[in-house]
């Protein structure tokens, strides 16, 4: 994680400090910083993230050089999500991050805002009006090609299902339409990602994506009507990656999702606090077996 040195006495009110919207190359830098923080983003996340809301990414610069960033993605007029909140270590504790935070929160004003924050930062987020809804737990395991095929569920490439059907399913799980993001997410480069659908006849029972990251692969989302369909999707996704590390971010309040991780010998390695400024969206968490991303919800 590289940045320019922080001058002695630098303050966020100095005219040399500017907060502006990111361009696509700035998002690449932000994700490089996220990787340096150990967040392990996907190799191709930047383009899909930017498609979600080209106006919702902010960078703080000193004399034109980036020193911090935040994403504040607006999903329409009712919902938004904060993520990628990073200030270079040398610039922390001096108020530069608060300028970024305020820019993102102002942009999302009037919406219910969500975030996945580290547990220790909950008191700070509460000061901005966020309330804990539940915890998400990151599980890590190793992909195996020896998993049994799950009977009664047909697994197909998501591209073979009409996009509007996939969008309708995703919207019910996410609580709002995120068509631009979903279209980009399902179109990640095939050499690094797979998107699968679970079918029972003509009925869509699940949707999942796996993508290559700096370390291993992350699954997200993993949406399914029940554990049976979720298990079928999980095994289909990992079966072509034997021996590779696999990560799955699970809402702790969904016991079936926790059971899926445990039955595949995955171990808890990290937790976040899912928080909202208003009531938690009315989504069927029993069908959320894997969060899409901690950065965009």
Describe the fold and architecture:
The protein has helices at 24-36, 45-52, 96-107, 122-127, 163-174, 179-185, 227-238, 255-263, and strands at 17-21, 57-62, 65-75, 79-87, 112-118, 131-142, 154-157, 193-200, 203-212, 217-224, 245-251, 267-276, 288-290. It has 297 residues and is an alpha+beta fold. The model has no long low-confidence stretch (mean pLDDT 95).
Total of DSSP H or I helical runs spanning 4+ residues: 8
Largest sheet entry: 13 strands, mixed
Q: What fold name stands as the CATH topology of the largest domain?
A: Aminopeptidase
CATH architecture of the largest domain: 3-Layer(aba) Sandwich
The total tally of domains equals: 2
Mean pLDDT: 95
Q: Strand content of the residues, in percent?
A: 25-35%
Unreliable parts: none
Pfam family, one: Acetyltransf_1
InterPro entries: Acyl/Acetyltrans_Enzymes (IPR052729), Acyl_CoA_acyltransferase (IPR016181), GNAT_dom (IPR000182), YitH/HolE_GNAT (IPR041496)
GO molecular function: acyltransferase activity, transferring groups other than amino-acyl groups
Protein name: N-acetyltransferase GCN5
